[in-house]
Specification:
The protein is an alpha/beta fold. The chain is 33% helix and 16% strand. The chain has helices spanning 21-32, 46-56, 72-82, 96-108, 122-143, 185-199, 216-219, 272-282, 301-312, 366-377, 394-403, 420-426, 436-446, and strands at residues 12-17, 37-43, 60-64, 87-92, 112-115, 263-268, 291-295, 316-319, 330-333, 339-345, 348-354, 381-385, 406-410, 432-434. The radius of gyration is 24 Å and the shape is globular. The N and C termini lie far apart (56 Å).
Length: 455
């Protein structure tokens, strides 16, 4: 029985797909017990799911991985092929086979995953499911009506976990406002600065630029009287011409100017496996530094993710091992259920895997990694925050930013969930806000390459 509260929250329509009647009933009961959530159907395998989902179009489906007739992976593939506007959360077991299939599903576009508890206490198992489902319902609610996960990228509007979307800001090259051009409050405050940076060319001192007819009234003051000297056109921010169309430079301290950053650290959560696949595939070869990634995932699954990324990209990717020395041109992913940090040694950066308590309910934690990077290299680093719900990475970015590290945030339009990057933008920590497709090339501009052997 759906509990509809007096709040303005829309009812989330859910569908449960599982060949095990116990899990099908348990998940349905948990969802039905949540405020403003309605279970509209239950399916016993993938074929049944496709028939019902095509007719009912629920907001999201919980999808068991291993089922007869048509398994969860094949069902997800068909949902994607039909471009059904349904978010899919995979339900999986903590086994290597299930982890392999789940990572494949996440890279295919599944929203997230639910891990089936394997304890002997039914009440404890149910509490685990309740917590996981509550988190996913929160994510789906934030995305409701804003994003078709299987639409082409150009059709995907920004998805932000906020009570209301910010007003759209018209881009100067767009004739009409569009949902894809919506900016956060912080981005709106600095959008004018970006336009000024675009319109100010590096001219000889004492010369003034001609007003741009498209936005002369907005960005250029009327010309002074003839007898008065014209004001000098100044560039307040150093903006790379190749990224000026997409990059936004807020009024914050500039990153430290060092010859070569000593490492890159990346934090990502919901939507990470798919986004990392795109990012890593475009990373340039020959980067003379290691790359450390924290992706929120349980144990076993991070190993499968690293293996997937290693097979599909040009750069070596592996799950980090305690005590190993970080190699240049190598990507290290924090093991699920553990923390990863780095420590300075005479021969370079050493990776340390710890079992310290969760940081803000996250383990591995982006903040835990980023703060260790700041202790080791100060501002000689590049921090990147990608798609994800919550605020993990905010505290670490504050410390890195204060030390002079460059901070890059993924933009709203290309995020699955614009939560973690939004925290960075709203706190004026992002030196650059870039689409996912442009981050790798920007790294290539910021970090000089050299010939290395990736092994």
């Amino acid at each position: 029985m759906t509990r509809v509260t007096g709040s303005n929250q829309a009812v989330i329509r859910a569908m449960v797909t599982d060949d095990t009647s116990l899990y099908r009933r348990t998940i349905a009961d948990i969802l039905d017990g949540m405020d403003n959530v309605e279970v509209i159907a239950a399916a016993y395998d993938g074929e049944d799911c496709l028939v019902q989902a095509s007719k009912l179009l629920p907001d999201f489906i919980t999808m068991d991985i291993q089922m007869p007739r048509r398994n969860g992976l094949s069902t997800l593939e068909e949902i994607k092929k039909r471009k059904l506007p349904i978010h899919v959360v995979m339900v999986c077991s903590e086994t290597e086979e299930s982890a392999e299939q789940t990572v494949q599903a996440l890279r295919m576009g599944a929203l997230d995953m639910i891990l089936k508890p394997n304890g002997t206490d039914f009440s404890e198992n149910k509490r685990s499911l309740e917590q996981q489902l509550a988190n996913h319902v929160q994510t789906v609610r934030a995305l409701k009506g804003r994003r078709n996960p299987f639409a082409p990228q150009a059709e995907i509007p920004s998805a932000e976990p906020a009570a209301s979307a910010p007003p759209a800001v018209q881009q100067k090259d767009s004739p009409e406002p569009s949902s894809t051009s919506s900016l956060t409050a912080a981005e709106s405050r600095i959008a004018a600065r970006r336009r000024r940076a675009q319109d100010e060319s590096p001219q000889t001192q004492g010369e003034t630029e001609q007003p741009n007819s498209n936005n002369a009234q907005e960005d250029i003051q009327p010309a002074p009287a003839a007898q008065e000297p014209a004001p000098v056109a100044r560039r307040k921010y150093q903006v790379d011409p190749s990224s000026i169309e997409r990059s936004i430079e807020p009024a914050i301290s500039r990153p430290k100017k060092s010859a070569i950053p000593q490492c890159i650290c990346i934090g990502v959560s919901t939507g990470g496996p798919q986004s990392l696949g795109i990012l890593i595939q475009d990373f340039p070869l020959g980067l003379p530094l290691p790359i450390f990634i924290v992706q929120h995932m349980p144990p076993i699954f991070t190993k499968s993710l690293a293996d997937h990324l290693n097979r599909s990209g040009k750069i070596r990717v592996s799950e980090a091992v305690d005590g190993e020395m970080a190699k240049d041109g190598h990507i290290y992913i924090a093991p699920g259920g553990k923390h990863m940090r780095v420590d300075r040694k005479p021969s370079g950066l050493q990776i340390q895997i710890t079992n310290d308590p969760p940081v803000g309910a996250c383990k591995p934690s982006v903040d835990y990694l980023f703060e260790s990077v700041e202790r080791c290299v100060g501002g000689d680093a590049i921090a990147i925050i990608l798609t994800g719900m919550g605020a993990d990475g905010l505290a670490g970015c504050k410390k890195l930013h204060a030390s002079g590290a460059r901070v890059i945030a993924q933009n709203a339009e290309t995020c699955v969930v614009y939560g973690m990057p939004r925290q960075i933008v709203d706190n004026n920590l992002a030196h650059e806000i870039l689409p996912l497709s442009e981050i790798a090339s920007r790294i290539g501009q910021l970090v000089p390459k050299r010939s290395i052997v990736c092994n």
